[in-house]
Every structure is written in structure tokens, then in C-alpha cells.
Write a structure and sequence with these properties.
Blueprint lengths: L2 H16 L5 H9 L6 H8 L7 H8 L4 H5 L4 H5 L2 H20 L6 H17 L7 H7 L7 H26 L4 H10 L5 H8 L3 H13 L13 H22 L3 H21 L7
Length: 280
């Protein structure tokens, strides 16, 4: 299988997972547990690894300012339990998907998509090595409802890819801050979004920019723009990420991946069009 197929298939279905971080249903569930601010995000995503310290979250989430993480972890574990957070996350996913997709959650197409994504995710679960955040999620029980199985499978596939992506970023010599800046320089995500969600102050952000410029990865003046060397580095990172992810999609074959994309595409579009999903 061409590694690009893995990227296309993951990207097409990604909103089915990504919506959990922005849905009002999930936010309400976390608030009911006493989790405020960013606690719901950090705790719900980290909880599969256990009630880990902030240092583990900083390492595995990678590009958030450490001080932002420490505002939420470990205080979130003092306010509620890991099991309560994980149950709230599933309830939030259920509510958000039912609201967004309506009758589609009970459709035969949903069953088909869930089966395909589950095959890929279960295959990924045979390759835990070096993927700590994914391994935590892989330890969780599988939901029964097809729409939740699809969501869980896509979550696993996203974290599987994400851990591989961090390995590629580290191999390329980028810190979490530098990775965030480099991502903005590709034009795929606005700088304002990255600054607000990752909480890097202006002086630290600018220091990171200057460091990348000194290494010849960003152009010297004006807006954040990758140099030729920077573009080559970014392409290598994406190619390495795809190569590390492809094992999960190989059992589906090209036809199975195409079928999963065809099934997921209209649901992903509906979720994106609902307006609560933001770039991450």
C-alpha cells in the first residue's frame, strides 16, 4: 500500500474523532465533574494512560506550553476519577454524534464503516512499541454501538499516527514549540489558532521563530514562510509519519480504504459544517 493512502484515509475520517475536543456535549459532561478551563481536554485525552503527572502529558501531547498543562494536571485527578472522566468522554461522543449525524448513527453504512475502521485499529493494537499515548487508548474497552465503535477506532488510528508523528518530529530535531511554528508556516493552520490553543507567549514564540530562521528552516523576514530546506524537512516528516501509519491500513487494502473514505466523507463534512470543530 502506498503510504499516502494511510494519510488520505485518516484525514477523511478525522472529524469523527476530532469533534470530541470541541463538542458542547463533551464540555458539559466534563463541567459536571468539576473540570474547568482546559482540564476536560487534557484529562480526558490523558486518562487512558492513567492518572499520570503533568510531565507525561507534556511529553505525549508534545506541542503545548508546559505551564498550560500544569494548570490542569494533576488538579483534574483531584476533582474526579479516571473512570468518571472516561465515561463522560464516551457520553459526550455519543451525544455529539447523535446530534450531528442523526439517523445515520443507526444506518447499515455506519456498521460497515465501523467494521472497516475497527479492522485497522485492531491491527494498530498489535504494534504498541514506542507509542505511549496510543497504547493507553488501546487499553480501553470497545463500545458496542457502531457509531461509537467508529469513533473509538478513529481515535485509536489518530493517536497511532500521532505518536509516529512525534517520533518523526523528534528525529528531525524539532521541539514541541518549533513543531507548532513549522506547522503554522505550512499554511495549514492559522498562527492565531496555534498561539491560543497551545498558549505560547509572544516572546517564547518569537524566540522559537528566530531559532528556526537561524537554522535556515524559515525565511528571514515577513510572515512565517518555510525555506526550501524547511519544506524538504516538513515533507520528510509527513512522509515518515505516513510510512509509520500504513501498517494499520494495510489489512483494509486500497479498496477497503476507499470504501471507508466514501462512507466517512459525508459524516465528516456534516461535523465540520456544524461549526463547533476548529483547527487543532
Amino acid at each position: 500500500m502506498e503510504p499516502m493512502i494511510a494519510r488520505r484515509t485518516w484525514r477523511t475520517a478525522e472529524p469523527i474523532h476530532g469533534m470530541i475536543y470541541f463538542s458542547p456535549e463533551a464540555s458539559a459532561e466534563y463541567e459536571a465533574l468539576g473540570l474547568t478551563g482546559q482540564m476536560g481536554y487534557f484529562a480526558s485525552r490523558a486518562a487512558p494512560m492513567g492518572t499520570v503527572p503533568a510531565e507525561v502529558v507534556i511529553a505525549t501531547f508534545f506541542n503545548f506550553r508546559p505551564a498550560l498543562v500544569r494548570e490542569s494536571i494533576p488538579e483534574a485527578w483531584n476533582r474526579t476519577t479516571r473512570d468518571e472522566i472516561l465515561a463522560a468522554r464516551v457520553r459526550g461522543a455519543d451525544g455529539a454524534l447523535r446530534r450531528s449525524l442523526g439517523a445515520a448513527v443507526e444506518s447499515p453504512e455506519m456498521v460497515d464503516a465501523a467494521e472497516l475502521a475497527t479492522l485497522g485499529a485492531m491491527t494498530a493494537c498489535e504494534h504498541l512499541d514506542g507509542r505511549p499515548l496510543f497504547a493507553g487508548h488501546a487499553s480501553l474497552p470497545w463500545p458496542d454501538a457502531p457509531h461509537l465503535r467508529l469513533w473509538h477506532a478513529q481515535t485509536l488510528l489518530r493517536e497511532f499516527r500521532g505518536d509516529g508523528h512525534i517520533a518523526a518530529l523528534l528525529t528531525a530535531g524539532l521541539t514541541g514549540l518549533e513543531a507548532a511554528i513549522s506547522h503554522v508556516a505550512t499554511g495549514e493552520v492559522p498562527g492565531a489558532v496555534m498561539l491560543s490553543t497551545r498558549a505560547w507567549p509572544a516572546d517564547e514564540w518569537q524566540a522559537g521563530v528566530e531559532g528556526l530562521r537561524a537554522r535556515g528552516l524559515l525565511k528571514a523576514d515577513g510572515d512565517l514562510t518555510l525555506t526550501e530546506r524547511g519544506r524538504e524537512q516538513r515533507q520528510w516528516i509527513e512522509d515518515a509519519t505516513d510510512a509509520a501509519s500504513v501498517v494499520a491500513y494495510e489489512p483494509l487494502g486500497d479498496d477497503g480504504c476507499a470504501r471507508l473514505r466514501a462512507l466517512a466523507r459525508p459524516w465528516s463534512k456534516t461535523i465540520v459544517d456544524s461549526g463547533f470543530l476548529r483547527p487543532t
